[in-house]
Amino acid sequence: MTDVRLLVQRFDPFKDEEPRLVEYKVPKREGMTVLDAILYARDYVDHSIALRFSCRQASCGSCGMKINGRPRLACYTQVDELAGEKVVAQPMENFAIIRDLVTDLGSFFEKHAEVVPQLVRSDLQEQEHPTSEYVMKPEELTRVLQFTYCIKCGLCTSSCPTVATDSEFPGPQALAQAYRYTADVRDEGGDGRIAILDTPHGIWRCHFAGSCSYVCPKGVDPALGIQLLKRHVMSGHAPRKAGEGSPTAKAGIPAHGPGSGSSSGG
Amino acid sequence: MRESRLMLLQYVTALLAVALVSIHLMMQGVILPYDTAISFNNMLSIYRNAVTAVFLEALLLVVLVHGFNGLRIILYELRQTKPWTTWVDVVTVAAVIGTVAYGTRTVILAAFGVVSA
Q1: Which of A207, B37, B107, B110 is 20 to 30 A away from residue A120, measured at CA?
Q2: Domain harbouring B76, CATH code
């Protein structure tokens, strides 16, 4: 059995002046992920290694870190797929380090929340007492589907050159989510989101480097979402009026589904 | 003004700049030989022709608006404070007004014969 040379960046802001790389030898096994290697080092060599992880199946987005210079999920990166003799694990760029591989995602989630990442509708009565479903056509779903796969791991934001220089820039994750909800036919909150993003440090500061899309472990293309949102803003989309967001009303689909006889929309 | 309007201005002036600079370069070396094109008398005749004078004024306006709007965008990324943003806005707008005014002065002086051969 060969060993993996695992180098983990260690840094405690309360004690250390500079981050340093510490090497651990980890016995390699087939199918071993970088997360497995780090956990081995933590369990059997040095209990003080700090890292964040949870699901181990690329669903929770907790174990984002820079592996051999590129932002990746540690649980979704096998040691064998990395070129070179060693595995270097460092915390994500563009985030403050709490300790070792753990970064502060506070501002990341604040920016996510600022773009109102949920469907906004004015028909509260319909939401409280639904009379029908909010129907989406397949092509309307396709328009936003890939953006719903975002797991908020922060890899896109850590790779974004604009985030590195502009602390007020929302970042690719938040902007892609803004597009995801603005382009959703059931949503009526697009104008509110655009008012937040059509600002000096908003959506227009994206230079379309495309690194966000390159590093996304879920195949989401945030750079595309940002360009589509720019087009949406530039084309001066007319705001949808209350009730207009529901395709049930627009398409004239009976409110209680086919065959119900009612035609009122949501 | 909303940022999208300023960006629309940036895109429009970019397209116009490509067109106008292309014409300008053609005037400097394709329509006339370069040496003839940059001679003092030829330059004066360009300024005194209403069509080419308006063209030069348009070129001046488009390139300066595009350039200083681009500089504004770059400077925004240096700092993210409200005073800085305001300072950048004021300085770039003042720079556009100042340089356009100075360039326009040249066009007017040459066009109306204050400068002569």
Answers
A1: A207
A2: 1.20.1300
Q: Residue B117 domain-assigned?
A: no
- B chain contacts of residue A235, beta-carbon cutoff 8 Å: none
Residue of chain B nearest A194, judged by CA positions: B4
Q: Tell if the CB–CB gap between B73 and A205 is shorter than 8 Å.
A: yes
Q: Give A154-185 pLDDT, tens digit per residue.
A: 999 999 999 999 999 999 999 999 999 999 99
Q: Is the ipTM of this complex over 0.85?
A: no
A227 and B CB contact within 8 Å: no
Question: What is the number of structural domains in chain B?
Answer: 1
Q: What is the pLDDT of residues A180-224, one digit of tens each?
A: 999 999 999 999 999 999 999 999 999 999 999 999 999 999 999
Rounded Cα–Cα distance for residues B77 and A25 (Å):
42
For residues A92 and A134, membership in a common domain is answered with no
Instruction: Provide the residue range defining the domain that includes A201.
Output: 106-251
The CATH number linked to A222 is 1.10.1060.10
* A89 and A117 in a common domain: no
B81 touches chain A (CB under 8 A): no
Tell me if A262 is assigned to some domain.
no
Residues A21-63 have pLDDT tens digits of 999 999 999 999 999 999 999 999 999 999 999 999 999 999 9
* Residue A84, pLDDT score: 79
Residue that finishes a domain, picked among A67, A83, A103: A103
In chain B, the residue whose alpha carbon lies closest to the alpha carbon of A205 is: B73
Pick the residue of B10, B76, B89 with the most A CBs within 10 A to test the interface with A by mutation. B76
The residue of A94, A160, A204 whose CB has the most chain B CBs within 10 angstroms, and thus the best one to mutate to test that interface, is A204
- Complete DSSP assignment for A230-249: HHHHHTTPPPPPTTTT-HHH
As to burial, measured by CB atoms within 10 angstroms (0-12 exposed, 13-18 middle, 19+ buried), residue A254 is: middle
- Check B77 against A200: CB less than 8 A apart: no
Residue A246 Ramachandran class (φ > 0 left, ψ -120 to 50 alpha, else beta): beta
- Residue B116 belongs to some domain of the structure: no
